Amino acid sequence: MTKPGYVYIMANKRNGTIYLGVASDLPKRIYEHRNGLIEGFTQKYGCKMLVWFEQYDDLEEARAAELRMKNWNRQWKLKRIERMNPEWRDLWDEIAR
């Protein structure tokens, strides 16, 4: 049985600093970012807004997609956000349990 996975992008503001990550439990992971429970990049730069995510049937697929996207330039990532979320709304309410 496979476990679903998510690739997601956090931001500190519209067109600001962005962070690309992968998770098996998206609500839990975003909660951790939003509340500063994860030391590192998102905590340092205040990336607390979930601005984009994509679900995969398999966590390994999600990890592979994340690795591909990490090689993208910033503009490609911004276009991905803009297609799904042109207002750069915080999508937390859409995924929070």
TrEMBL record:
What GO molecular function annotations does the UniProt record carry, in alphabetical order? Answer: endonuclease activity
**The GIY-YIG domain, residue ranges:** 3-79
Q: Which Gene3D superfamilies does this chain map to? A: GIY-YIG endonuclease
Report keywords, A-Z. Endonuclease, Hydrolase, Nuclease
Q: Name one Pfam family in it.
A: GIY-YIG
Matching InterPro entries: GIY-YIG_endonuc, GIY-YIG_endonuc_sf, UPF0213_domain
Hydrolase listed as a keyword: yes
The UniProt family comment states: Belongs to the UPF0213 family.
List the protein's name. Putative endonuclease
Q: Which organism is it from?
A: Parasphingorhabdus marina DSM 22363
